[in-house]
Write a structure and sequence with these properties.
With about 230 residues, the chain is mainly alpha-helical. The protein contains eight helices and three strands. Helix 4 runs antiparallel to helix 5 and helix 5 packs across helix 6.
């Protein structure tokens, strides 16, 4: 209902009749990605960093096994984000596999990996703060509540509130495992992006020109650059 109302509002504002799928697409972005912002306060270097950051997320989601379908990549600020990759999961399963969780973890880390590849370690930014938080939460859940660590085994380390519920020795093993899986995932996704450096550059240039591209367009760029 909310989506339909927003689509109708957009159609009236832009004098579009009848309401079409473009109106629904814009309504979806407003609801799930926030109000469209302005790029006036974003300098050229920041915009370049943001575009490469989002290109990294998109490539990882498109190429990793169990990655969610990329709906669009945009350089247009939405809410608090200076850019964004919108994805849709086609998997309607109630259960989530370790493989799927590992992919999610790597996709979250791919933006920072792209920044480091293009600009160097000294130029990585605060733009990955939420990504790092999300990746850490996934790793902690995998190893602290889902028994997915070989070192820890089928032991619950965290309670439902995410607080420690284990011995000091187990907590130390848990912390080390979480750090290791995040660092290894970062290394893996950075290697993936380095192997698709041409696509990373081409998606960046496409975003510079169009500001928003679809997941299908991004995948065509990746496949073209692989030939």
């Amino acid at each position: 209902k909310n989506l339909i109302n927003e689509a109708v509002k957009y159609a009236r504002k832009k004098k579009i009749y009848p309401v079409n799928m473009y109106c629904f697409d814009e309504a979806y972005d407003k609801i799930y990605m926030g109000h469209e912002g302005s790029v006036e306060n974003v300098n050229d270097l920041e915009q370049k960093i943001v575009l490469y950051h989002e290109a990294g997320h998109a490539i990882a989601s498109l190429l990793l096994p169990d990655g969610d379908r990329v709906r669009k990549i945009t350089a247009i600020p939405r809410g608090q984000a200076l850019g964004m990759v919108s994805t849709i999961s086609d998997d309607k399963s109630m259960l989530i596999s370790k493989s799927k969780l590992m992919t999610k973890l790597k996709v979250f880390l791919a933006g920072r990996a792209a920044e480091e590849i293009i600009f160097g370690e000294d130029m990585i930014t605060s733009g990955a703060s939420n990504d790092i938080e999300q990746a850490t939460n996934i790793a902690r859940t995998m190893y602290g509540r889902l028994g997915m660590s070989k070192d820890i085994g089928m032991v619950k380390v965290l309670n439902a509130q995410g607080e420690y519920d284990a011995s000091p020795e187990m907590m130390k093993t848990f912390d080390n495992n979480v750090k290791d899986i995040i660092n290894q995932s970062y290394t893996d996704v950075k290697k993936l992006l380095e192997g698709n450096r041409e696509a990373l550059d081409d998606i960046y240039h496409e975003l510079m020109e169009k500001k928003t591209i679809s997941g299908e367009e991004a995948l065509k760029i990746i496949n073209k650059d692989k030939k």
